[in-house]
Write a structure and sequence with these properties.
Strand order of the largest sheet: 8-7-6-5-9
Mean pLDDT: 82
Shape: elongated
Number of domains: 2
Number of helices: 5
Low-confidence stretches: 37-46
Radius of gyration: 23 Å
Number of strands: 9
Order of helices and strands: EEEEHEEEEHHHEH
Largest sheet: 5 strands, antiparallel
Helix content: 40-55%
């Protein structure tokens, strides 16, 4: 007899030494394949043309592109118009016509706005972590997709991790993005807003609204995919 771990509920299941094929877990009734090669063959975890899978692919690709683009985009708008000023993950950016210049958070450490600069550094780190989560998430999705298509053979434990870490990394990207944005938005409101008598009211940019919307959709669709695979 051989004892294996269910890829869905992680309960231990006993199988004959020469057992191979498609089996149903007696605990969670989830289906899995087992064979002599100890690798996962393509499984029917969902129709490739399923609308959830299709929209999920789109959301994740768009989320990754937006996070990369967001490294140099305004998350918080201070001034708009011919002269535009906003807050990016790397500092405060001013734009006039086709020219732009960014004052980094490190430069701000030697100015009067030390508190804003310190919070800005935390904001920058959170955005970078969110991007790393997103890259890891897309990598796990590619692994799962290639396995289901029969283009990649990996151990059951590896495919388990890829399946379930998709949801965790999707949440990680969303949480770091939202926390980072709220942190810099509130700090800018307290510092810049108060210092100018609220003549300048820091407000969310169209970019950050779009990014959070996409990441929320991504996390929701990723969770739905996890339910389908159970």
């Amino acid at each position: 007899m051989v004892v294996i771990e269910c890829p869905h509920c992680e309960e231990h299941i006993e199988l004959d030494d020469d057992a191979s094929g498609l089996f149903e877990c007696p605990f969670c009734e989830g289906e899995f394949e087992w064979g002599e090669s100890d690798t996962l063959e393509p499984t029917s975890t969902g129709d490739p043309n399923n609308s959830i899978t299709t929209f999920s692919h789109i959301a994740h690709g768009l989320g990754g592109a937006l996070l990369i683009f967001g490294l140099f985009s305004n998350w918080v708008v201070l001034l708009s118009g011919q002269i535009a000023v906003g807050i990016t993950p790397f500092g405060i950016k001013g734009s006039f016509g086709g020219l732009s210049e960014t004052t980094s958070w490190f430069e701000g450490l030697s100015s009067e706005d030390v508190f804003l600069a310190l919070v800005g550094l935390v904001f920058m780190i959170l955005v970078i972590i969110a991007l790393l989560f997103q890259i890891a998430h897309i990598t796990f999705r590619i692994i799962v997709h290639m396995t289901e298509a029969g283009n990649l053979e990996i151990s059951i434990r590896m495919i388990e991790r890829a399946y379930y870490k998709r949801w965790a990394t999707s949440k990680g990207a969303l949480i770091c993005t939202v926390v980072g944005y709220l942190l810099i938005q509130l700090t800018a409101f307290i510092t810049i807003g108060a210092d100018t008598g609220f003549e300048i009211i820091p407000r969310p940019s169209f970019y950050i609204i779009s990014l959070i919307t996409v990441l929320v959709a991504q996390a929701y669709l990723s969770y739905q995919e996890t339910l389908i695979n159970q």
